[in-house]
Design a protein that fits this description.
By secondary structure, this protein is of the alpha+beta class. 53% of the residues lie in helices and 19% in strands. Its main location: membrane.
Amino acid sequence: MNVSRYISNKIDGADSGSFTSSVTKIAIISIALGVAVMIVSFAILEGFRNEIQSKIFSFGAHLTISKYDNNNSLEVEPINGAELTKELKRFPQISGAQPFARKTAIIKTRDEVLGVVLKGINESMGPSPMRANLVAGKFLTFPDSAASEQVMVSRKVADKLRLKVGDDALFYFIQNPPRVRKFVIAGIYQTGLDEFDEVYVMGDIRQVQELSGWNDSLVGGYEVVLRDFRQLEPVAETMLNTLRYDLKLDKITDQYAQLFDWLQLLNRNVIIFLLLIIFVATFNMVATIFIMILERTNMIGILKAIGATDNQIRRMFFFRGLDLTIKGMLWGNLVGLGFCTIQYFFHPIPLDPENYYMDRVPIFWDPSVILLINLAVFLTSQLAVLVPTYLIARIKPVVAIKFD
């Protein structure tokens, strides 16, 4: 029989109704709240990160390759798509690449006028990630015989111009000579990011090629998706040193630096917050064991008098702290994972898309992070338990037995 464990269990029952019982409940609650808050915080943080990154990547991919020029116009010089495709095949880190072309335009309806950028795309390399942002109508169709006359506008553009699915809209292209195209609104998308929603209209790349006088092999550039976004920096550096000198390579983190900086700042603030939570939970555990030792000073003296060693008594309080930690962690996981489950499936907490880029609090499940949180709380709590138990060696049996 493990004597230390046996006495620890007996203390658990004997403490009922005492001041120590109240303190242990506070310790369990503090650990439970710490674990729950950390699980929820990381789930929401990763949810924000993945949601915003997926919206950005659906529009711009990880890397953008275009012709190098000295102006900042959205309309770029054409490049040979077939030649660039051959060059991209040399990089195993690339999972896919889609051609694009852009053309500035003015949309005119009966009552409104609005400047936009027509972004031409196709699905020759697979389904476009923009399909995930569709909120009304249908995605563009790309017929084999001719360029599609369908376009997709954002919810903001549709509201400003009072357009709905199935409506016709006149697009005026300022060039020499000026041209006009009538397009049909096939669908309405919404990313929640003003950088996209207020500017871009999606259409068939062949329309942009015809308006610009390009042949089928010329495109405005390629949007490149990597197999692992975390390898963005080294892959971008390698590609920059390998591609032709007249090609420009833009990283998504530079194109939308303000969004990625915001995510980084959010991540830093959450880490500081979580460290404070761990500190509070650890401090509560130390205080709880201190109180237990003070209330059990008389018992410690008796145990020492009958031959118990300091390590045996220390293990007794260690097992007591272990029980409190496990109980707190179980309740914390139950509350934290329960909240995440409810929010993930039922979305009871909404958000303002104007400020947060999404209409509800996002949840991202990462079992490795949940495991690390529990491991960190368990280790810090057990280290906190060991600190006050070293006072046991300073307790003298004669003095402790008289202690009241």
